Amino acid sequence: MLEHLVALNALPKIGPVRIRRLLDAFGSAEAILNAPKDRLTRVDGIGPETAEVLRSWESHTDPATELREVRERGLSLLTPDDEAFPPALREAYDAPVLLYVWGEVLPRDRHAIGVVGTRRATIYGKNSTKKLSFQLADAGHTILSGLARGIDTTAHEAALAARDGRTVAVIGSGLAKIFPAENLGLAEMIADGHGAVVSEFPLHTAPDKQTFPQRNRIVAAWSRALLVTESPAWSGSLITANLAAEYGRPVYAVPGPIDKPTSAGCHRLIRDGATLVTDAGDILDDLGGLGLERGLRSASSASDSVGPPDTPELPPEEQTVLDALGDNESGVDRLIDVTGLPAPTVTATLLKLEMKRLVQALPGFRYVRR
């Protein structure tokens, strides 16, 4: 019964590996929660303290209230038995026993490519991420990342800018505690028909130093391949890359300037065997592609062409933002005020215009017409 699995997933100090051992031993979450203490301690890894938590589960969680809020928020729950649960993630030894989903996970999301990197992204890192994520999304791959500041945010936005682009954000908090808060608008755009925001944590779980590594393993296990676009020598993205390698996923990395600490992590990955990437074709050729040749051609022409393509007519939002730019450079805040469009719409539209070579991004989140 789903309510019992929700309760089991919410208990402290009992991770997915031990939950799976318990499920193997007892057959269901309901049987685990009703089992006597002496039987619980016979399961490998379940000591007296953990068994006591299981026996007193009602003092730790209220699954009925949790499920009611899930319904009220328009969310859904996926278990490994559900068809929509990502097959690659299901096969991981430490796979989550439950996924909270805002939006929708589709069959095409099993072709997800993880894109990760530093929160303190440089212009070089963001531009590399924009180009590669846009190309991969336009070729039919879902872009999977963590909704963090910097590279993650850029990867999600680039996927949204691609034709029929999809992206999945796996977060290190509950869905009622979107973090960072400034990415709530981006999360809404993703969930509104362009992918999903996903968490294994109960709704009101706050992020902490344990939840982010747990999130990283989901990104690594779910991804068909993992791309690191910018990373210093010590970074959570390197942890994700190491996990991906353990799961048997190919790892790719973007080289950077040799004198920049922000590229040291990528250089280490390449030295240790990751594939050097300068174009999405490097990844698509390795993976055998999805048979979607239109994606790479259109993405490459959009991001690499010498000048603007012929664009006799733009979608209304793109034309509105382009007109608002005028002949002088403008900040995002000004464009939001002038156009009256929501902030996430303006930033996504600017990225689309940038990929079409109609605008140029400048330092300080400023833009100018080409």
Provide a compact summary of the structure.
With 370 residues, the protein is of the alpha/beta class. 45% of the residues lie in helices and 12% in strands.
Features:
370 residues, alpha/beta, DNA polymerase, domain 1, Rossmann fold, Arc Repressor Mutant, subunit A, three-stranded antiparallel beta sheet
Q: Can you put this structure into words, describing what you see?
A:
This protein has 370 residues and is an alpha/beta fold. The chain has three domains: 2-65, DNA polymerase, domain 1 (Orthogonal Bundle), CATH 1.10.150; 102-303, Rossmann fold (3-Layer(aba) Sandwich); 307-369, Orthogonal Bundle (Arc Repressor Mutant, subunit A). It contains 18 helices and twelve strands. The strands form two sheets. The chain has a nine-stranded mixed β-sheet, sandwiched between helices. Strands 10-12-11 form a three-stranded antiparallel β-sheet. α10 (184-191) links the parallel β5 (167-170) and β6 (195-199). The longest helix has 16 residues, at 123-138. Mean pLDDT is 89; it is low at 290-312.
